[in-house]
Amino acid sequence: MSVYDSQTVAARAKVLGSSTLYEACGLPTAVDPAIRPIWRGAFIAAPAYPLECSPGDNLALHLALERAPKGSVLVVSTGNFIAGYWGEVLTVAAQAAGLVGLVIDGGVRDIQAIETLGFPVFARGVSVKGTIKATAPSVGQPMAFNGAHVAEGDWVVADDDGIVIIPQGEVARTLTAGLARFDKEARLMAALREGHTTVELMGLKRQEEAQ
């Protein structure tokens, strides 16, 4: 991470947001947009701890709660199988373990309780169906995750716009580029308020001129 410590990364990621960071990074960092916050305003900016659950089996999650470093966000692959892998009990356990969020391509339940606890969760769906605890295919190992790649220590930024996973070695560059993009857009919007147009400012051609 070199230039930025974890607190600085999180603070700047919150200001910039997932969309700006995606554009600034220039890498395939975007996660499937069908994975959404289960309560509006949920936000995550933290190092990833990846794991894989078998369909309908949440044993890997229980193991991860013992192994993941404090300050991590769990990034969970289920093969897109919707079931209630996560609920109020695991949320309380995660908070006690110092974890800061969950991104899962499966389902969760106990939505009202999770929101009341203020724990940010991004999921593909909601399901009342419980899970078994029998197998744990992968805990803490790198994996492909719904359009992106994730390894322990990569940075997850998730908000109402979506989710990006930025490789650990690209975080400093991405934040620097993101801040430059943010400043450029601020100047653009200031000019728009002064009466300029996007066609003018962006050097766009009107349809009749392009023909």
Automatic annotation (TrEMBL):
It comes from the Bacteria. One of its GO terms (molecular function) is methyltransferase activity. One of its GO terms (biological process) is methylation. InterPro entries: RraA/RraA-like (IPR005493), RraA/RraA-like_sf (IPR036704). The keyword Lyase applies. Keywords: Lyase, Metal-binding, Methyltransferase, Transferase. This is Dimethylmenaquinone methyltransferase. It comes from Pseudomonas weihenstephanensis. The lineage of its organism: Bacteria, Pseudomonadati, Pseudomonadota, Gammaproteobacteria, Pseudomonadales.
